[in-house]
Structures
1.
Amino acid sequence: MRALLAAATGLALALLLVVGISALGSPTGPQSPKPLLTTVPPHP
């Protein structure tokens, strides 16, 4: 029973954290003009 209570508490805290971060939204400010590299450059 104690493990079930601990699991429920952890799940509730994780959900609260996700909702809190989602409520803040994305940060405002200038964006970088350079895109992130998503592929590995070819090796010589």
2.
Amino acid sequence: MIWWFWLGPLGGCVQIPLSILRMYAMLNPYGVKVRYPQDMAVGIQDARAALEYSQEIKRWADALIGV
């Protein structure tokens, strides 16, 4: 499954695969955790998964813009 998102003032749309959206959803809570480091307790497996997901999202974005 693929989702389409409008890029607003940038113009056009971009296709975002559901797998990328799922990885993003998994990473999203870390954005809150880093703002409140006293609450940040991340296990090694979670850290490895987060790193893997972020690298995969970056690869997808790089391919999208031709880097």
3.
Amino acid sequence: MDSKKEGEKLLAVLVCEKLAKEKIMVLSAENIERIKLIYKSKEKITVCAGCTHFKKSTTTEILKTPNFVHLFFERWIRNYL
């Protein structure tokens, strides 16, 4: 969550939230605060899926709106849990 790259922060939030939900990890108060800040970020992230989808969205938009990023993340994380 300390990365300078917004996409890495987004991925870190998704991973931490998933691990906490599955009771694999307990988030510290500091991490919870970092996650809250990342949720408020207005930084843009370019999201693409091959040639069919290309869009710039804020971190907030991606985290708060169910979208294919969440779908692909869930598929990816299942391989590691």
4.
Amino acid sequence: MGLQSATAQLGMLPGNPPRFDTERFIVVPLRPEKVRELLEVLLCDPPLAEQLPWLADKSADGARSEALLASLQCAAGTAIVWGIVERARSACIGVVIARHSLEGVDVEVLCASQFFGQGVADEAGEPPMAWLGDAIEVTLAP
């Protein structure tokens, strides 16, 4: 199969996103206030922040602004954020973010830097991506 891009119609993302259970993680949908709270902490992780080109202001103020924006997008139905809870520690170590972009729906997996290189993005990101693929109208671009 050749390289293709997938786009979805702009508008609201599907409501009532499910919880996903993987071998190491529980991927649970977050309410807007929890999105803000978690991202305010996560985006202050310098090694993670350095990898995010959309996070122009790498300061605590920049993290707070982006966290607020994500929570407002969730409340408006234009973004979905799932928390990634590591089963072994019962601790939230990251998020899966699905939001509209000019190209369609972008899905990003962000995790605390101490979990880099441990397969978090693949394991925690795949179930939400598969669900989104089934739940929204996707058109393959030629």
